[in-house]
Amino acid sequence: MEENKMGVMPVNRLLMSMSLPMMISMLVQALYNIVDSIFVSRINENALTAVSLAFPIQALLIALSTGTGVGVNAVLSKALGEKNNEKASKAAVNGLFLAVVTYLIALAIGIFFIGTFYRSQTDDAEIVTYGIQYLSIVCIFSIGMLMQMMLEKLLQSTGKTIYSMITQSVGAIINIVMDPILIFGLFGMPKLGVAGAAVATIFGQCVGSGLALFFNLKYNKEISLSLKGFKPDIPVIGKIYSVGIPSIIMQAIGSVMTYGMNRILISFSSTAAAVFGVYFKIQSFVFMPVFGLNNGMVPIIAYNYGAGKRERVVKTLKLAVTYAMGIMLFGLLLFHSVPDLFLKMFAASDHMMEIGVPALRIISLHFPLAAIGIVFSSFYQALGNGIYSMWVSLIRQLIVLLPAAWLLAKLGNVIYVWWAFPIAEVFALCVSICMMMIIFKRVVNHIGENHSESFA
Hints:
Strand content: under 5%
Structural class: mainly alpha
Number of strands: 0
Radius of gyration: 21 Å
Distance between the termini: 29 Å
Shape: globular
């Protein structure tokens, strides 16, 4: 059987060929997330706040989908490294089944819980109304997003990241074009306001999902997506979630963190919560390329772990850390140099500028440390030990960040709250380095001795 490029191509060229398409597609994703909020901010600041407050639920759905996808990615890529295409195909088909299960959860949230969710954060009637309009649509029609994310993971798992880039880019461009048309009622279309932003988003995701399915069926020949005689394979699902559940928990922690930060910040003003939402939109331009790098790195490491090629695993890790650090340092420079320009894109008031400029400068101090932590966490997942990533995320976002933010808020000035981010990142990095030393001793140093043996 011909060797997959992940086992033979020079590592630096392989990482770039795998990661650059993902980095580009994630930059496009970041762009359309920002454009979404830029157009919504033209309605008024409450509309921007409503979309910002929606992030915990959106993050939860992404956590469920991405975490499951990480599990599928690790199991599938490792199976290919072991030359077991039947096992890889089982992982792929069961991954699609799990995407449908995730949609049923999203549907229930969209029908029953959106109003309660918003009223738990604010008593401003206009923000609640905007929020229900936006988030209900996003959840109820989220099947496109969930299927697109899973299908893209299948393409990434076999090294076909260029097709994943195309599907994400097409969906994002459709959303960017439709946003102003549906929000403001251009070219004879109805003026839908905040709901228009949601409709544009789900339409772009559905188109991207259809395109991703086409690419998998036509070009992803290493796996079969045949549903003939399909029934859920419990052992395969168990292996997927042995990696995926820690990843789901890790990312869902981000949802809890964002919800908690919104509660802390809105006690100062709705503008402070809006600034936090704007920060998340802007920082995605820095973090998304790193996540794209990681998406290219994970299947390379999982494949070579399965193939018993230790040197390729270690070299991929070192290169990923180097590139991630460079991206984050560039982001730190931008956030310190032109924070006012970023905020002006969102029609920031004087009060928003007063809160936002120091916020962006302070929070961005943790970027270089986060670069190392993010790559390390993905490395743990690629080796099938996502529990390490989960613990690092718990320490960063719940055990340290939220208590630190709450205590700093007691000082009575919102500017102190932003320091919780660099404080939490220092603690998380220390723990992550210790865990990396353990995983090298227990796993990495033994790759190739018995590469068919899974790490337990």
